[in-house]
UniProtKB/TrEMBL annotation:
Protein name (database record): Lumazine-binding protein
Top-level taxonomic group: Bacteria
Pfam families hit by this protein: Lumazine_bd_2
Gene3D superfamilies: 3.10.450.50
C-alpha cells in the first residue's frame, strides 16, 4: 500500500472520530502526546490531547444530534515514510472546520501528532 493510501485510511478514521466521537478509535487516531492549537478572535488556545479527549467525552456527537456529515481531504503532503501533513475540511454540527494535521507513523501506524484547526464558517 502506498503512503498516501495509508494516510487516507487514517484520515477516514479521523473523520469517523469527529462524527461519532468514539473514544476507542479516538485513542488510535491521536498520538498520546498530541497537542491541538487554534486562534480565534486573537485568543490562542493550546490544548493537550487529554484535555481535548475529556471535551469529546463530555459532549454529544454530531451523529447523536443528527447533524449532517461532510468531510474531505484537501491535501496530503508526504515529507518522509514516517512524517506527513494533511489539510482537511469537515462539518462539526453547525461549524465548518479546516484542520492542518501533522502526522507521524509510529509502530507502523499513522497518528495525529498535532492539530491546527480553524472554524472557517458557521452554518445556520
Amino acid at each position: 500500500m502506498m503512503v498516501t493510501e495509508e494516510i487516507q485510511l487514517m484520515l477516514n478514521d479521523y473523520f469517523d472520530v469527529i462524527y461519532t466521537q468514539e473514544l476507542t478509535k479516538f485513542d488510535q487516531v491521536f498520538h498520546p502526546g498530541s497537542v491541538l492549537y487554534t486562534s480565534q478572535d486573537n485568543n490562542v488556545v493550546v490544548r493537550p490531547i487529554a484535555e481535548y479527549r475529556e471535551i469529546v467525552k463530555g459532549r454529544k456527537s454530531p451523529q447523536e444530534l443528527g447533524s449532517p456529515r461532510k468531510d474531505e481531504v484537501l491535501m496530503i503532503d508526504v515529507l518522509s515514510d514516517e512524517i506527513a501533513f494533511a489539510k482537511v475540511r469537515l462539518r462539526l454540527n453547525e461549524n465548518v472546520m479546516v484542520d492542518y494535521l501533522n502526522l507521524l507513523k509510529v509502530d507502523g501506524k499513522w497518528t495525529i501528532a498535532a492539530k491546527f484547526y480553524h472554524r472557517a464558517e458557521t452554518i445556520k
